[in-house]
Design goal:
- By secondary structure, the protein is of the alpha/beta class.
- It contains 17 helices and 20 strands.
- The strands form 4 sheets. Strands 9, 10, 11, 12, 13, 14, 15, 18, 19 and 20 form a 10-stranded mixed beta sheet that branches. Strands 4, 5, 6, 7 and 8 form a 5-stranded mixed beta sheet that branches. A 3-stranded parallel beta sheet has the order 2-1-3, sandwiched between helices.
- Helix 1 crosses helix 2, helix 1 packs antiparallel against helix 4 and helix 2 runs antiparallel to helix 3.
- The protein is globular, with a radius of gyration of 27 Å.
- The model has no long low-confidence stretch (mean pLDDT about 90).
- It holds the Pfam family Glycos_transf_2.
- One of its GO terms (molecular function) is transferase activity.
- Keywords: Transferase.
- This is Glycosyl transferase, family 2.
Length: about 550
């Protein structure tokens, strides 16, 4: 009995020692990540430190997050922290069998198989090697599968590994869902070192059209006939994913379950839309106050748009500059309608008033500080806005220096809402080229937004009471989303935005109080300080607009 107690005490002491060693290693790794950030960009790091010491924690985290995530050790630190929540190894489950299918393209791939088979064996998953002497073809593999048990298929490439507990995670998802595709997050392997994690969005059919982020990191509930129909195709796994994904809504497991040698590449640039279709009338609404230099540039851009029927409504909010008033008076009444709107600036009220008088089937909300760079922007946005499942469509907006100002809106960033990929250069890879790909988003900015007028009016337009200036576009998009009209980001329409140049920033006491009230309303109505944007990820930092690993 005493010996058993001694053994238990020794085990407890060993576990405790191991825990403290891991914690010390994690703290040291954290220090190294901060050192990398300081060395890479000392000025920004010290500025973030200053805000942290002044207890401006939101501002500090927003600057720290992208800096820390750029460290080559950042993902290793994230993995170290995740080890505490690692799942146990799986056991076979006759109710939910999973069969791995490994396609051998050539004889050289056989040397990469050992790690793949080892990871599958650890999860008690049987594997069929297509291209091996025993299973030469996909048709032969089909005959070797026991279809009576309604198995799920796990296509895996040679050299890929699945994470410990992957089968358990997938089987738990099977219990809760009747979907035919379940996919998970993945990272890349160099030898046995893991890097470049892809924390994926929930199902995004528009993004998937341009970038297959599912194949090779998923399980499929396919029938024998589904597989037989693709027996003669070389890329049967990708085709099967597309076929099954199109038959329902794939389920995303927000877990890192796959370690891969390579990933499918996105289609870049995205194929241009067919602009030859008949387009309905569109009403472009431009609020303005003074700053005729900006307004002239904006309206010249609207006039240059290659679009058959455009109504332009300029809503003047108490301009008193003589040159601006002269310019407005000289506008051609057959092409432009000037709508006076007096009183305190209320962006929502201004646009709502114009929308009720607009004649177009489509509305384009456009800031007067937008500069047009090419003639097809309006048609591109309009074609997307006419889709029955689409609500608000937003363009890619750039700062005058060429960096991104808006590439969709992420809910929850800063516990409110933030512009995705802000400050990134368009020709950079960024976060898996997401800024260069059309995709559904939770919201888009009203600095340049196209929506069908009937949809806009159905949800009551912009909220004039709660969101007079800020977050009215986010609120509008969320209400459209609730009706089944999803917001969409369209980078094939790219414009320049001289952000807040005409109205100025909210740095005065009245503006700060108003903004605080609108921020509180956004959190109260939409719970933005708690929810996770389905097109973002819980393991991406809520403090950063640049899709940084959450540390």
């Amino acid at each position: 009995m005493q010996s058993e107690v001694a053994i238990c005490q020794a085990c407890m002491q060993s576990k405790s020692t191991g825990y403290y060693i891991r914690r010390i290693a994690e703290v040291w790794l954290t220090v190294l990540v901060h050192f990398d950030a300081l060395r890479t960009n000392p000025r920004t790091y010290l500025t973030a430190t200053k805000w942290w010491l002044k207890r401006k924690r939101v501002r500090a985290r927003g600057q720290f997050a992208p800096l820390l995530s750029r460290s080559p050790r950042a993902y290793r630190l994230w993995m170290s922290r995740q080890e505490r929540n690692r799942r146990a190894f799986s056991l076979p489950d006759a109710r939910h069998p999973i069969v791995a299918l490994i396609q051998l393209e050539n004889e050289h791939e056989s040397k990469d198989l050992s790690a793949t088979l080892e990871s599958l064996a650890a999860e008690c998953l049987p594997a069929l090697l297509i291209g091996s002497p025993e299973t030469l073809t996909l048709a032969a593999a089909i005959d070797r599968i026991n279809w009576c048990n309604h198995p799920w298929l796990l296509p895996v490439s040679p050299g890929d590994r699945i994470a410990p507990g992957a089968a358990t995670a997938y089987r738990a998802a099977m219990e809760e869902s009747a979907v035919r595709v379940i996919y998970a997050d993945d990272d890349l392997l160099i030898g046995r070192r893991r890097h470049r994690p892809y924390f994926k969005p929930d199902w995004n059919s528009e993004l998937f059209r341009h970038c297959d982020y599912i194949s090779g990191a998923c399980i499929l509930r396919a029938s024998r006939s589904d597989l037989e129909a693709l027996a003669d195709t070389q890329d049967w796994a990708e085709q099967l994913v597309r076929q099954l994904a199109g038959a329902g809504t794939p389920l995303h497991l927000r877990e890192m379950l796959h370690h891969r040698r390579s990933r499918p590449r996105p289609t870049l640039p995205a194929q241009p839309l067919d602009l030859a279709a008949d387009l309905p009338p569109i009403s472009v609404i431009v609020p303005t106050r003074n700053r005729v230099d900006l307004l002239r540039t904006c309206l010249d851009g609207v006039r240059s748009a290659d679009y058959p029927d455009v109504e332009v409504i300029v809503v003047d909010n108490d301009s008193d500059d003589p040159e601006t008033l002269a310019y407005l008076a000289a506008l051609d009444p057959d092409r432009y309608r000037v709508l006076p709107h007096g009183g305190v600036f209320n962006y929502s009220a201004i646009n709502n008033r114009a929308a009720h008088t607009a004649q177009g089937r489509l509305l384009c909300l456009l800031n007067n500080d937008i500069e047009v760079t090419e003639p097809h922007w309006l048609a591109t946005l309009a074609i997307q806005g006419l889709r029955p499942e689409v609500g608000a469509v937003g363009a890619r907006l750039l700062y005058p220096d060429g960096r991104i100002q808006h590439a969709g809106v992420v809910i929850g960033v800063g516990n409110a809402a933030g512009h995705a990929h802000r400050f990134l250069k368009p020709d950079c890879e960024g976060y898996f080229h997401r800024h260069n790909l059309p995709q559904f988003t939770t919201a888009v900015t009203a600095a340049c937004l196209v929506v069908e007028r009937d949809k806009f009016l159905t949800v009551g337009g912009l909220d004039e009471r709660n969101f007079a200036v800020a977050f009215n576009d986010v609120d509008l998009c969320l209400r459209l989303n609730e009706q089944g009209w999803q917001s969409l980001y369209e980078p094939r329409a790219t414009l320049i935005h001289h952000e807040s140049v005409s109205r100025g920033l909210d740095s005065d006491p009245v503006g700060l109080v108003r903004f605080a009230g609108e921020l509180a309303a956004l959190k109260r109505i939409w719970n933005t300080d708690e929810i996770c944007d389905p097109y973002h990820h819980p393991h991406l930092s809520r403090a950063s607009e640049q899709f940084a690993v959450a540390l």
